[in-house]
Specification:
Shape: elongated
Distance between the termini: 79 Å
Number of strands: 9
Strand order of the largest sheet: 2-1-6-3-7-8-9
Strand content: 15-25%
Order of helices and strands: HEEEEEHEHHHEHHHHEE
Helix content: 40-55%
Structural class: alpha/beta
Largest sheet: 7 strands, mixed
Radius of gyration: 25 Å
Number of helices: 9
């Protein structure tokens, strides 16, 4: 029996409905991948901070940096350290002319400085998330009141982190600064590990060792006015640097 006009109509309607649902799924997935809307911050209560839940790279070191921003209560200071790491780094050139990259969040993107993107690419794990506190992302920089209150909490944020990571920025591809930085760190370890009496008696660091230390300390992170304060707050520093070939 030949299909009736009504049968053809309902068949076409079903096909159109299926095509519509399929198109919505494709569009939604494409929008999620592109994150073509800017992330909108939500207010956080007093005593709370935001953290970056950094997505793993699954072996693709050049994959775009993705994360989730999560709210976290820091008011319980009796807990001691908390399960996040705090990142200290140099922001880089600010303003509209500064080089920026996109950080893809759960509901949009944030513009971040290129130096921070390099740090996050280096710091993300291969297969599990990593929980970080990064001032330029975890604080809504457009909210003056929030920024002021969060800055007042920075001593507590660094003091209660499970570890503090220091990003010394990317090095040149010639490898010279990489070698100097590695040796500079090693020289500082040796000097710091000597007994006080031996340091008073004399400094046996070679000329090459002194040059390596000078090269390390010439990096922009050590020039920051905040570093003196942070160094006094941090119980444990973890020095990391992309392409330097060393992690501590």
């Amino acid at each position: 029996m030949a299909p009736t006009t009504q049968d053809v109509f309902f068949t076409l309607l079903s096909l159109l409905a299926f095509a519509y649902l399929l198109l919505r799924q494709i569009t939604s997935r494409d929008r999620e991948l592109r994150n073509d809307t800017e992330h909108q911050y939500s207010p956080i209560p007093d005593g709370w901070i935001r953290l970056i839940q950094l997505t793993p790279d699954h072996g693709d070191k050049q994959a775009p940096v993705r994360c989730r921003l999560v709210d976290y209560c820091l008011s319980d200071t009796e807990q001691g350290t908390h399960p996040y790491e705090a990142l200290s780094y140099v922001w880089g050139v600010q303003g509209p002319d500064g080089p920026k990259e996109d950080l893809h969040c759960q509901n949009g993107y944030l513009h971040i400085m290129r130096n921070l993107e390099a740090a996050l690419k280096r710091l993300r794990y291969r297969s599990v998330d990593r929980l970080l506190w990064v001032d330029s992302v975890c604080i809504n920089q457009m909210d003056v009141d929030e920024r002021a209150s969060q800055v007042l909490m920075m001593a507590k944020i660094y003091a209660h982190a499970s570890r503090v990571l220091v990003w010394l920025e990317e090095t040149s591809s010639d490898g010279a600064s990489t070698t100097d930085s590695g040796r500079g760190l090693e020289e500082l370890r040796v000097l710091g590990g000597r007994r006080f009496e031996s340091r008073v008696e004399g400094n046996n660091t070679s000329d090459d060792g002194r040059q390596a230390i000078r090269s390390l300390l010439s990096r922009s992170w050590f020039q920051r006015i905040w570093v003196g304060l942070k160094m006094g707050l941090l119980g444990l520093l973890d020095i990391v640097s992309l392409t330097c070939g060393f992690d501590m």
